[in-house]
Each structure stands twice: as structure tokens, then as C-alpha cells.
Amino acid sequence: MSPLSRFTQTGLVVVMLAFFVYVLWASQGFRDAARIFPTTIAVAGILMALGELARQLLTRFRPEEADITDLGDDASMDIRAHFVTSGKLLAWLIGFVALVFTVGLIPATVVFVFAMMRLQFATPLWPSVLVTAGVLAVVLTLSRVLLLRWPQPLIPIPGL
Amino acid sequence: MIEAMIEALFILLDPYRLSMLFLGVIIGIGVGILPGLGGLMGMALLLPFLFGMDTYAGIALLVGVLAAVPSADTFPSVLMGIPGSSGSQATIMDGYPMTRKGQAARALSAAFLASMIGGLIGAVALSAVLPFARPIVLAFGAPELFMLTVLGLCVVGVLSGNRPLKGLVAAMAGLLVGAVGGAPVAPEYRYTFGSLYLFDGFSLVIVALGLFALPEIIDLLARGGSIARRADKGAAGTGWWDGIRDTMSHKWLVVRHSLFGVFLGFLPGVGSTITDWLNYGYVVQTSRDKENFGKGDVRGVIAPEAANNSREGGALIPTLLFGVPGNSAMALFLGAMLIFGLQPGPQLVARDLDLLFVIVWSLAIGNVLGTALCLVLSRPIAMLSYVPFVYVAPFVLLIVILGAYQESRHMADLVALLSFGVLGWFMKRSGMPRPPFLIGFILSGLAERYLWQAYSIYGWAWLMHWMVIVIAVIAVVLVVSGVMLKGSAQGKPQRPGKEDAP
Predict the structure, then answer these.
(1) Of B348, B324, B352, whose CA–CA distance to B450 is shortest?
(2) ipTM computed for the complex
(3) Backbone conformation region of residue A2, classed left if phi is above 0, alpha if psi is from -120 to 50, else beta
(4) Helix (H) or strand (E) holding B190
């Protein structure tokens, strides 16, 4: 397991520990019936999170295999580069959702798919156009067949 | 019982329901062939479209996915040496060497036939258990059902990853995220921060899509290239009949490993990876001539393939009868049943026997259909995984986002989707298993209700019920033996040609 992955696993357990502590604290204001369950689970969660942190502390200098249960890690990959690329992709997704919120799903889809393929993955022009058109066709077909609704944009574009 | 069985067959033979089963099989083959996308992803993508659907049709659709994935995930394992899903890893051991020897067609047809027989044995086992399970299940009260929930969570938490504590932490977090919104046993809204959106709690669809679909898409895009990185195009070759003859000549091997697969599927938390490797280890250990294993012995393909299909029938037993999902795909299946207003557990056995048999029939027919389709579509399917993922991702991503938005048609759906996507990605990257989180989330309401019922009826005296104690002992035994099983599965041999692995 790379140092970055180790740092991530410790960080995530700390975040979960904070979450359990908050749940325990907040649950004290509830009625009995609503309090028993979150209190019990939060206490159990705190104990387990502390146990996991202790385990990580005790094994911090020992080599540890990556957990590949769900193909989550790969010994051959550059973890740091993977984190950076994943961060960029996440930023694209956040941008897409912001665009959907602003101008609506259809224009946002066209802009997002085409721009991501061209700018992030440097896909050639025609494949990018074809995939964008294909995605648009799928979205429109699904909306007709399954009677789906789209988010109402802040700035609606007439005709879309 | 027999009448219910026959009635269920006629219910399923309705053209609409049969076409949904067929659609599920096609989707199952589609996700099974793409490494990284398993039955869980297929079911997560379908969940949003189940609302308003006929119950039997929706269930047939999902069971179709479940039945087809263990057959379809054989393609990448055999043809490219990469697992199509976590349940087809051991198939690589002998399947891929067979491909390299020009016997891919033989390996595939042997695997498909073994898968089909395994799937049918799984379906028969499920239906055989129902008559005996009914009186037992009906004897379970709230304390025992709560303990079963705890048992399932503990075992899944312990067995889902390499580090048991991380799995248990994830399960606890899932239980608490499931507690957001209105309390099931008191007029109280919890952890909503005054947001109307959170009053109903988080949606299962959004949590499942966020935790599992988004991280896979991001990871596959970040890795770049096509899903399959090998260039063994046209590797299927000839020898289809040889594989079928191989399976028929090893029929007792198929039956033995199918039954073992059912048993392992029945145990909550023993995932497809463990089932696959244990069966591979079992066939190697019990064979007299071991020297060809790892070099292209067809028995090394037949045994795990028979087991990974039959385990779906076994995994449905605790899911349907006790409401304790054995794995994350079963947790989603359980969630889908809740969407249809069906409560798994004693009530289901008592009131919806026809539905249980619809599931059995769907599993059996889905297996036969899936195998037949895999054989017919072998060549074109093998080419799919060479398509660069950047061309596939926009379609999958849009379906995920559309599916998430249909939940409550609120912009917050998309924010929640992204948030769970980030959480899922960090969990994946840090090796914290996601299935216990999802199972905890799904079981949260049920567990709280059982706990409160037990507490309000018996006080804390329910802890001394003999059946509660028995279940607690079973939990301890299963957890301990599970850790040992995991240890033996981790001691599996290295896959062949690892230096060539993508």
C-alpha cells in the first residue's frame, strides 16, 4: 500500500470517527425511542474506529498489501497520478452538475460530453461529435419512453 | 407448494414479464463482460426505473441481471486474463492458459455449460429450502430478527475486505447514514439540519449509485484506455463441442461444486471472490493429477464457474427468508423489494409464496437464457471490451445522473449523488469495503424497528432469549471461521502470466 493510500485510509477513519462522535452527541437530544439506536451504533462505531486507528498506528512501518477486494488498488499504478486525474474528473462532474443547475440538462450534456472528451481526453473531433450526439439521442429517447423529467434551470434556454 | 410453483411459472410466462427477464439477462451480459462493472452496477443502474413497474416484471428484470453476470464475466477472464467481476478471478487460473494454447472456445463452452448447470442447481436448492424454511422463519420474533440483522452485518463487515475492523466501521457508518430523516419508531426527525430534502432520509438509489457507479467510472477513466488492454482479438477459436463434452464428462464435479457454491452463498459475507477461490482450491486438492492445474486444466474452469452461478441461489436464501443480504448485490435486491413494498422475511414466506417461486423460475430461466446468449454472442461480445472507456463513460454517466435525479426530482439529488460518489471513491482508494456500508444503510430502518420492538416488549431481557444466544454464538463462530476462510483464500496461488497482466 502506498504512503498516499495509507494517509487516505487514516484520514477516512478519522472522518468517520468524527461522524460517530457527532451522531452520539446529537442523539442525546432525541426522545428515548429515537435515541437508543443511533446511540448504540455510534458507541460501537467509535470503539471500532479507535480500534482501527490503533491497528494502523501499530502497523504503520510494516508493509501492507492493498485491499483489492473490489479491484480498488493495483500495484502497478502510479497512485499519485491516479489521485490527480481522479480529482480532475471529479471537478468535471461538479462542473457538469453546476451547468445542469444553470442552463438545464440538454445544453449541459452537449457542452460537458464534448468538452470533456476534447479537453480532458484529447479525443479526435469526429468521435467526440458522434459520442455527444449518441448521448443526446439516448437522453432524449429515455425521456420520451420513460417520461423522465429534467431539472428546471436557473437560466432556461428557449426551445430546450 | 406445488400449486404455488406452477402458478408462479404462469405468472412469469406473461410476455411483458418474460421480456423484462430477457432484458435483465442482456443487461447482465453487458455489465458482466465489462471488467469493473458487475451485477451490483447493473442492478444499481436499473433501480431508478423500477418505480411504478409491475412487481413481478421488476423482480424478473433484476433476477435476470443476477443470473447472467456470473456467466458473462467468464469472457474477460478467459479471453483476456482479467476478471470480469470479483467472482471470476479463479477462472483465470486455467481459463486464460487455455486461451493462450488456442483452446479459448473449449474453455468458454465448458464454463458456460457448467455455469448453466450450477445456476439451475442453485435455483432447485432455493426452491427445495422454501418448504422447510417456512415454519422455522415464522418462529422468529423481533429479538431474533434483530440479532440476525446484526449477524449479517458482522459477517459481511468482517469478510468484505482484508481488514475486518474497517469493514465493521463501514457497516456502522452505513447504519447511521440510514438513520438520517424521520425515526421509524418515534415522531422525531434526526440529523436533517432543518433541510426538507433530508426529512425522508437519503434514497437507496442515490447512495448505491454514488458509492458504486461513480467511483468505478472515475477510476476507469483515470486509468485510461479500453477496459481490456490486451490485443488477443479473435482469440475464441474453435472447439466449442470439446468444452461441452468436457463438462458432461465431469458431471459429478459440476454437481459437487454447485452444491458447495450454494452452501457458501447461503453464508452471509462469503462473497463471490471467496466462493470462487475456495472452489478452485477444493478441485485442486481433491484431484489426483494436479500437475496441469494453472497450465490450462479444464477442471479449473468448470469447478469455480459452476460454483459462482449456484451461489446466487444460495445467497437468495438468507436475503428472502431472513431479510439479511449475503452480499451487496443482494442488498440492492433487498432494496428493490422494499421499493415494491415487499418486506423480506417471515411475511414474505407466508404471504408471497408465488413471488418467491417467480424468483426461482426467473433464476432458472435466466441462467438458461444467459448461457445460450453467451454462446451465441461470444465473438461480438469479446470485441466490446476493446472499445476505449472514454467512449462508453458518457453514456453510463448520463444514465447514472438521470437515474439519480428521478428519485425526488430535486437538485439536491445530484449533490447527494456527488457526495456519495466522493465518499465511495475515498473508500475504494483507502481499501475500506463499500458493501458493508450499503448493507448497513439498507438494514438501518429494519434493525432499528426490530431493536425497538424487542426493547419495548421485553426490556433488555430479550438478550437472554435462547434463540438470541444461539444466533450470537453462530455470529461469533462465523466471524472467527470467516477470518480463517479469508486467510486461506488470501493464500491462493498467484495467477499465471502475471507479468503480462494489464
Answers:
(1) B324
(2) 0.91
(3) beta
(4) strand B189-190
Q: Which residue of A has its CA nearest to B450?
A: A37
pLDDT (tens digit, 9 = 90+) per residue, B354-390? Answer: 888 888 888 889 888 888 888 887 666 656 556 677 8
* Number of residues in chain B: 502
Give the containing element (helix H, strand E) for B182.
Answer: strand B181-182
Residue B452: C-alpha distances to residues B232, B361, B381 (Å): 58, 37, 51
**Helix residue ranges, H only, B406-465:** 411-429, 435-458
Radius of gyration of chain A (CA): 23
What does DSSP assign to residue B226? B
Which residue in A has a C-alpha nearest to residue B452's C-alpha?
A33
B chain contacts of residue A34, beta-carbon cutoff 8 Å: 183, 185-186, 188, 190
- CA distances A136 to A80, A104, A108, A110, B372, Å, are 34, 13, 10, 7, 33
Q: Nearest-CA neighbor of B436 among B68, B176, B107, B145?
A: B176
Q: What is the rounded average pLDDT for all residues in chain B?
A: 79
Q: What distance in Å separates residue A52's CA from the closest CA in chain B? A: 6
pLDDT in tens, B7-54: 888 888 889 989 999 998 988 887 777 655 566 777 777 877 777 788
**B426 touches A at CB < 8 Å:** yes
Interface touch B163/A45, C-beta < 8 Å? no
